[in-house]
What we know:
The structure holds two protein chains of two kinds. Chain A is mainly β. Chain A has no helices and eleven strands. In chain A, strands 2, 4, 5, 6, 9, 10 and 11 form a seven-stranded mixed sheet that branches. The termini of chain A are far apart. Chain B is mainly beta. Chain B is 0% helix and 51% strand. In chain B, β8 and β9 form a beta hairpin. Chain B is globular. Chain A binds chain B through residues 3-4, 9, 39, 42-45, 48, 55-56, 59, 91, 93, 97-101, 104-110, and chain B through 32, 34, 41-46, 49, 51, 90, 94-96, 98-102, 104-107.
Amino acid sequence: DAGVIQSPRHEVTEMGQEVTLRCKPISGHDYLFWYRQTMMRGLELLIYFNNNVPIDDSGMPEDRFSAKMPNASFSTLKIQPSEPRDSAVYFCASSSGFRVFTDTQYFGPGTRLTVL
Amino acid sequence: AQSVTQPDIHITVSEGASLELRCNYSYGATPYLFWYVQSPGQGLQLLLKYFSGDTLVQGIKGFEAEFKRSQSSFNLRKPSVHWSDAAEYFCAVGAAQAGTALIFGKGTTLSVSS
């Protein structure tokens, strides 16, 4: 398996623009997670899906952020409008379950977002 | 509140020297503890995990970690560091309950000098 695939790997945009990050999870994994990594706050869980359904979006910072999973092999995280404070590395991860000890999460390489 | 502290932001170790990365946690119940590694340009990879049993747990790539309940610590060690170990290392704590997320520390960056 190719692992979790994320695109783009790097994104530079200007404040106010819409940004869409993409993720393809590992085939057969029922859970998909979006994380954000910043120097100040470290790695934070934004939202996770089970069988394409959003289960917990309490980590999404504000309404400018939205995530979808139209099918089992694709998810997007959208920021509209983007702001400089959204600059971070965004990771997607997938797993076969959500018991952290038994269900290892496999992370993608991340998307480094810079908002000017 | 649950939290994970990695006191060292950046550590430099000579190749072949031993390594210890510190991790302290605050957790109300018996924690599940994890160490992840993030190599440059890569996602996080699980190195090892601990819940119960022997307090010294072995992981991949020659790493081990020791759980010390009295010190609320879960330090990562390696006897001899290789240049390829240069990466960022994250300690994390989690719960047994399904659907609860891991709480990650802010990471320690390891540099390896020749």
